[in-house]
Amino acid sequence: MSSQSSMILSPSPPRGGRRWPWTLLTLSLAALCLTPLPATAGSGGPPRISPEASISQRVGVSEVKLRYSRPATRGRTVWGELVPWDQVWRTGANEATTLTLSHAGTFQGEKVEAGTYALFTIPGKRRWTLILNRNTDQWGSFEYRPQQDVLRVSAEPRKVPPDERLTFVVPEVTADTVSLELRWAGLAVPFEVRFDTSRLAREEARRQTSRRPNDTRLAWSWAYYFYKEGINPDQALDLAARAAQESQVYWTWSLKARLLARTGRYPEAVQAAVRALEYGTTDLETSGEARSDMEYLRTQISEWKAGGS
Question: Which of 3, 32, 252, 275 has the most CB atoms in a 10 Å sphere around its CB?
Answer without folding.
Answer: 252
